[in-house]
Amino acid sequence: MTDTHNETATVFKREGRSAVFKSVLILAVVLGAAVYAGIVGYMYLNQQSLLFKPDGDLPEPRAVGLADVDVISLPMADGAVLTAWSAPPATEGAPTVLFFHGQTGNLGDRADRMREILNSGFGLFAPSYRGYPGSESEPSEPALIADAIQMYDKLAGEGADVVLHGQSLGTGVAAAVAEQRPNAKLLVLEAPFTATVDVAAERYPFLPVSLLMKDQFATRDLIDRVTVPTLIFHGTEDETVPLHHGQALADMAGDTAQLHVIPEGSHNDLWSHGLWDEVQQTLAQ
Q1: Could you report the per-residue pLDDT of 260-285, keeping only the tens digit for each?
Q2: Which residues are bridge partners to 262 per DSSP?
Q3: In 84-229, where does DSSP find H-type helix?
Q4: pLDDT at residue 3 in the model
């Protein structure tokens, strides 16, 4: 009788432990799913602020060493008013660089690049994106590209030869314009990505970013249709957008593009490694 009682008690204990283990496992799964759903929800709801990162106050051009640059207001097709920095070419016959900046900060953070452009005798037209210092409305991929095409048409309509220059995020804008405006003189892609969604997928492999991201800037899907001569610059030490993105775009573009791999170059220092010299040499040919 005692043995039977002990066996029964042992069975109940085992079943009790098993039930507790199952309950803990189910709770862990539920909590894990809740945390994952929270992360997904956060990324989805905050994706605009993760991609577009305006910061600071827009300085006067002369305060950053650009005394010859004018500040102009640009009414867009939908009524939003944007700000741009503009200067005509100092050298007769020189092109105007339509410059699209990266995702962070404001135009003033790119003053060194603009100074090199102007010192070369080229014209400059550099818009501040929607939602960035000096400009109204909210940024989005369709809006930035539509604005950029309107700006290109404005410059071309005034008789300018236009060089499209995109820096990081701006490469997605510049390439989209080049695909739709094949009479641009040159397309310069500085530290480009195949797509913003590809960069996000590499950073967050545990998230379904292709389903979450609205603004994917998929340059890879249009680069083979760009007939504008293209220069691609990418640093070997770029940790923000790895080199393989630039290499992939060059392969997709084929004979239209030249890839310049910058040894020891990172995401933001390619101009100090001779980027602008290469651009000028190409334009002089």
Answers
A1: 999 999 999 999 999 999 999 999 98
A2: 235
A3: 111-119, 141-157, 169-180, 196-203, 209-212
A4: 56
Q: CA gyration radius for the chain?
A: 26
CA distance 171 to 240: 14
Q: In terms of Cα–Cα distance, which of 209, 129, 201, 205 is closest to 169? A: 129
pLDDT recorded at residue 142: 98
Residue type present at position 127: P
Q: In angstroms, rounded to a whole number, what is the distance separating the alpha carbons of residues 250 and 135?
A: 33
What sign has the CA pseudo-torsion 60, 66, 70, 71? negative
Question: What is the pairing mode between strands 104-105 and 53-54?
Answer: parallel
**How many other C-beta atoms lie within 10 A of the C-beta of residue 69?**
22
Pull the structure tokens for residue 183: 């009479």
Strand residues in 183-242 grouped as ranges (E): 186-190, 230-235
Cα separation of 119 and 32, whole Å? 57
**Distance between terminal CA atoms of the chain?**
103
Taking the C-alpha atoms of residue 269 and residue 275, their distance in angstroms, rounded to an integer, is 9
Ranges assigned E (strand) in the chain: 53-54, 70-75, 81-87, 96-100, 104-105, 123-127, 162-167, 186-190, 230-235, 257-262
Task: Give me the sign of the Cα torsion angle 19, 24, 29, 33.
Answer: positive
